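Same chain as my last thread, 416 residues:
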Amino acid sequence: MESTIRDINLATKGQLKIDWVKAHMPVLNTLREEFERTLPFKGKKVTICLHLEAKTAYLAKVVQAGGAEVTVVASNPLSTQDDVVAALVAGGVHAHAWYGATDEEYHQHLHKALDFGPDYIIDDGGDLVSTIHKERRELIGKVQGGAEETTTGILRLRAMEKNGELAFPMIAVNDAEMKYLFDNRYGTGQSVWDGIMRTTNLVVAGKTVCVVGYGWCGKGVAMRAKGLGARVIICEVNPIKANEAWMDGFEVMPMVEAAPLGDFFVTVTGNKDVITGEHFQVMKDGAILSNAGHFDVEVNKVQLRAMAQSCREVRNNIEEYLLQDGRRIYLLAEGRLVNLAAGDGHPAEVMDMTFALQALALHYLATAKDSLESKVYSVPLEIDKRVAELKLRTLGLKIDLLSEEQENYLANWQHS
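reply #2:
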């Protein structure tokens, strides 16, 4: 099977990136050694749809080490690193992706990756699952299951399950504690500001940051903004999360009230149209908009273009929209994931835990597939705990263990 990539000659440069993250992903290294011995995916085909940068590449190599034939495809056209993709192809992994793919090319790549006829999938945002169910139904029955990376994807999967439309089991990796407590919070918090700061080269301290959405990703973005010296405003629709944001020390208000105050805006909701024309109307000159949700629909770009008298790229990954009254609004990375489209994504040590969950979720599917229905499953607790234990071990950390007497005390309600 041929690959669809930009330039195989970039492989050497890409391999250096993969080698770097490999040195900082000890949990995956442990699993790779195990998979090389046990070959849990021998004879199986796996299609991985994730952001194609070095950490994802190493996950693909770990799955390949378990005996699988692997194909990768991008989950976002602006997060693909062509040199990393080339290195994967040079190492025997099939790939269909390049940086800056058009919408037509992006969907062609998805279909080519599915032409592979996968037994298992790893998805991001539900792109593979959606394509299979809408356009490639001949694969239903061939695909035995998969794992989903993101909040956005899990929302789509649960809607499919509720409607009785999900045709194979999917594991909600994003809902694992070793995922959202670290990847969503610390990973997103650091990588979003890395992307914003390297793109704008502007100071954050003393500025007002408006974070739209206070889920685990929003908590991480807000926490890092506060640490950088910003005033932080939270916009929420969930009253429980709004109370949490207030108790965490942040201001809370509707977006229409926050819009005139913000210097930086970061959307992390997984929903559409959270920043729209009514907000652009009252934003200050020089406001900077960015998104850290999966799809580029959180900032309404159509309305922003319609309101602007001109648009130009003033710096790589920064579009300037000049409004009729002379105000300028800046949009980073076309409103796509700013931490990946304008940065390198989450730190390797964080993704080490997430991708270990992905690898073990696939292993679970391969061993338990006959007993699983076409539903959305949580990551088994033993997998979550195993990744936690492996991570502590690689850090050289030890924790206390319960004695038999303590375990009995906790298990017996009659003790006082």
